[in-house]
Amino acid sequence: MIARGALIKPWLPTEIKERRNWDISSTCRLDILKDFVQFGLEHWGSDQQGVNSTRRFLLEWLSFLYRYVPLGLIENIATHPQEMNKRPPPNMFGRDDLETLMMSSNAKDWIKISEILLGKAPDDFAFEPKHKANSFAKQANVKV
Question: Nearest to residue 113, comparing CAs of 71, 54, 69, 73?
Answer without folding.
Answer: 54
